[in-house]
Amino acid sequence: MRLVRDWLLPVVLAGAQLAYWPGARLGGGGPVDPELVAGLVATVGCAVALGWRRRAPVVAMGVVLLAQALGRLAVDPDALLVIIVADAIALYSVAVRRPLRIAGPAAAVAYAQMAVLGLVVYGFGVTFLAEVLLGLAVYPVTLGLGRSRRRWHAARAAAAERLAAAEVDRQRAASTERHRLARELHDVSAHHLTAIVVTAGAALRLADRRPELVAEAVAFSARTGRETLTALHRLVAVIRSAEQQDRRPLEVRLAELADGFRRLGQPVRVEPDPIPEGQPELPPAVAEAVYGIAREALTNALRHAPGSAVRLRIARHPTSVEIVVDDEGGVPGKAAELGSGRGVPGMRDRAAGVGGTFTAGPEPTGWRVRATLPLAIPTEPAGGPRWRRPSWQQVVDGLIVLGALAIAVSPSLPVDGLDGAGSGSAGLLVGLVMAAHTVPLLWRRHRPWAVLAGVLVTAALWPLAVVLVPLPGESAEVLVAGAIAEFVAVYAVAGHARPAPNTLLAVPITALSLAAALTASAAVDGSVAGQRVQPDTAMTPELGLLFTLIFVLPGWLAMAGLLTIPLGAVWLLGTVLRRRRAGVLAREADAVARTTAEAVEAARRERARIAAGLRAAVLHRAGQVVTAADEGRLDVLLEQARSTLTAMRGLLDTLRADAGAERRAPQPTVGAITLLCAAQRTAGRLVEASVPVAPGPLPADVDVSAYRVVELALAAGDPGPIAIDLRYGDGGLRIVMAGVPSATDPVIVAGLRARVGALGGEVTVDVPAGRLDVWLPTPAPVPPDRVGPVGESVGPGRVLIGDEEVATSSSG
Fold first, then answer.
1. Angle at which helices 343-353 and 284-304 pack, to 10 degrees?
2. Which pLDDT does position 329 carry in this prediction?
3. Degrees (nearest 5) of the Cα angle 639, 641, 646?
4. CA distance readout (Å), 347 to 184, 297, 323, 356
5. Where is 552: in which H helix or E strand?
6. 580: helix, coil or strand?
7. Which of 377, 425, 531, 772 has the most CB atoms at less than 10 Å from its CB?
């Protein structure tokens, strides 16, 4: 297909040229005619060069110009009338496929060559000037049309990129929504639940010395627990949106945030810079990012450096806002158990989401978090509006108007020399009239009906011009070249006017108006095609009316009928191209809209899936926190808060975005182990699992850890067969995995022991047999075997918080 597109036009062009000239001379005998050889070489050279116009347009145009130069210098100028358009075709290809810095000089070179060859062939005279004017019309219009086509191709490429971006968004919609919800869940768990655990733990530790703290901790936990439930229910209902964000001033929200941390014993000093005079508030997205980063940084300070002084500074700059959080608590060598490792990535994501930068790291005085976020507030340049470079669409319109004007003026040149009587005034008058006739075409894309009306109205000046200044030759033949403006205007109406069905009216209206202008001009001048249309003797008014009815009116109607055919063809071309363009744009828009809708649906499904997991794993435990707070049982409250936090962390672990593909990992529970093994079998691994129903509710940490142990062992990559057997008894859950030799690697075993050991469990390894035996304690009720900032278990029902032993509740 590409071969046909490349060579069909050159072959047809060369065939038409050869049929026109030299024609029958190709088969004649006799000596070789040098003129014939030169004509054949020029024709074949142009055709071959045009065949490569899409692959190497600049080279093709160079060859065409050389071949045309040979033909025009060696052959009669009238012999190569067909192949002479090859340079315009080559220039069009250059304009379509090369930037302006190449296409512009190429057009100048082609025009210069035409002018030089015309001067050599014709000498300085009327014919030379007519050719120069014709070139002034052809080359700029060709360049403009080529640039317009290039813009169309660029727009289609941009549309393809938009569709590709929408497709990428569709593929990533679920993971993006999962990542967003994970960040929101982390905010809830890190801020609300951590605050409850820290407050309740401190109150329990100091209960003997300061019993009033117990009541304060219970009240704080009840209030914060309800806030947590509200936030979780909001996420479950999927109603969080931009409209529900806090719209209070950022300074007020930061002050309230700092007060909350001060009540937790964290001294926080806020230093927001005042907003410069005359500048608006921060954009909502930027303000939300600043608040989120501040909240996360203060939460990390509370978690890793409790009691240390923290300074929160907000600095407003002309084009950005900077947030800096310094704490003096030093850098912990090991993250506390309550940390999930998502704080710093979450802050970095918030900064990147608004185009900002983020850093976090140790400083000589402690730990520093710094983020710089652009404001992206457009500002007017100083000194008022600047001159804007015209768009390529405006340049193309100007070139078309220039070409139409050159074509309209060229027939007015005197045929008997430049010094003929009245030639100067005639040329000036025709130039003014035709300028007024063609200038409205500049607005043909945006006001096509108004442009058509302007063109038709200015055509009424033609009879007046004939009366004022005698034109060289017959006036109708001189002025008919100006009708190109009517054809361009009709094309513009067909291609751009609304409503589209009414554009057909432009054809009869233009035909009648144009025919009237031409007929009136001929009647005033008294001749059409060299034939007198008025009698030599003076006529009475009655005879003048009769003459008009007999000669002028039929001529007007006949001319209007003739003009209807080419005007209708132009209208049809504009309509077809308009529908084609509209169809392409509609298909592109539909494709993007359809892909976007699929992305929205994928995000909705992901939200529903996460909401279901949130209801199953977290909401019930969070409600128990509020219940324990209402009952005033601080030890149970602490236990349930830690259980809820563990469940939340387990849920967050399943929401980590997989960069390569969409994941549908089950929620981390013992019951989900069968789903995990089924997914492995789908991937081609031989994995079998025996998972009995638990005899009762499992502690959240055991429920999650059992799933993670199996997941970590399977991640070692053993092909199988793998057998996984779960058993309940002896106050614990035993997990036996056979056929996993790779999982007995010391690094993997160390990770398993770290997780299991935190719960008081054990890991037994049989390396030769490739077997793992894991035991997790499941006491009833569910005591937190590991609690406190670091956590040490000192016996059943008792834990060490700080430097004091605290008894846990004996009822669930």
1. 170
2. 67
3. 95
4. 12, 8, 11, 11
5. none
6. helix
7. 772
H helices present in 33-125, as ranges: 34-51, 57-74, 86-97, 100-122
pTM greater than the 0.90 cutoff: no
CA distance 505 to 564: 11
Q: Return the CATH architecture of domain 174-374.
A: 2-Layer Sandwich (3.30)
CATH class of the domain comprising 666-780: alpha beta
Do residues 357 and 307 lie in contact, with contact meaning Cβ atoms separated by under 8 Å? no
Q: Which of 352, 374, 381 has its CA nearest to residue 282?
A: 374
CA distance 744 to 551: 110
Q: How far apart are CA 35 and CA 161, in angstroms?
A: 53
Kindly state the DSSP code that residue 664 receives in the 8-state scheme. -
**Residue 38: closest CA among 82, 76, 81:** 76
**DSSP letters of 21-42?**
TTGGGGG--SS--HHHHHHHHH
Would you state the pLDDT for residue 449? 92
Of residues 311, 237, 327, the one with CA closest to residue 272: 311
Residue 708 pLDDT = 83
Name the phi and psi angles at 788, rounded to 5: 90, 175
Residue 617 confidence (pLDDT): 67
Q: Which residues contact 217 (CB under 8 A, 6 or more apart)?
A: 199, 200, 202, 203, 634
Instruction: Please report where in the chains the tokens 């918030």 appear, as a residue.
Output: 350
Phi, psi of 735 (to 5 degrees): -120, 115
d(CA 494, CA 488) in angstroms, rounded, equals: 10
What are the boundaries of each domain within the chain?
A: 1-123, 174-374, 666-780
How many helices, marked H, and strands, marked E, lie in the chain?
A: 25, 15
Q: What is the pLDDT of residue 370?
A: 92
Decide: helix, strand or coil at residue 338: coil
Mean pLDDT in runs of 10 for the chain (812 residues)?
A: 83 88 57 79 93 93 94 85 91 92 92 91 81 83 86 82 73 69 65 73 74 79 76 59 56 80 78 66 82 84 79 86 83 40 74 86 85 68 51 67 70 48 58 82 87 89 71 58 86 85 90 85 58 50 54 78 92 90 78 71 70 70 78 78 74 54 56 81 82 75 81 81 87 88 82 76 88 81 35 36 36 30
Spacing of C-alpha 661 from chain mean position: 21
Residue 691's pLDDT is: 84
Q: How far is CA 124 from the centre of its chain?
A: 56
Q: Which amino acid is at 136?
A: L
Three state DSSP letters for 454-475: HHHHHCCHHHHHHHHCCCCCCH
In 3D, which of 414, 406, 450 has the Cα closest to residue 431? Answer: 406
Question: Which of 397, 183, 423, 128 has the alpha carbon at shortest distance from 296?
Answer: 183
Please name the amino acid found at residue 326.
D
Is residue 452 within 8 A of residue 493, CB to CB? The reply is yes
Query: What residues contact 501, with CB distance under 8 A and at least 6 apart?
Result: none
DSSP string, 186-207: HHIIIIIIHHHHHHHHHHHHTT
> What pLDDT score was predicted for residue 22?
75
DSSP code, position 784: -
List the structure tokens of 219.
């009240």
C-alpha to C-alpha distance for 559 and 510, rounded to whole angstroms: 12
At 797, list the tokens: 């029902």
In 3-state terms the chain splits into helix, strand, coil percentages (rounded to 5) of 65, 10, 25
Beta bridge partners of 763: 774
- Distance CA(716)–CA(12), nearest Å, equals 68
| Cα 148–Cα 149–Cα 152 angle in degrees, nearest 5 | 90
Type of residue at 464: L
C-alpha distances in Å from residue 783, one per residue of 464, 518, 700: 106, 103, 10
Tokens of 758: 């935190």
**Three-class SS state of 777:** strand
Distances in whole angstroms, Cα of residue 120 to Cα of each of 66, 88, 378: 15, 21, 58
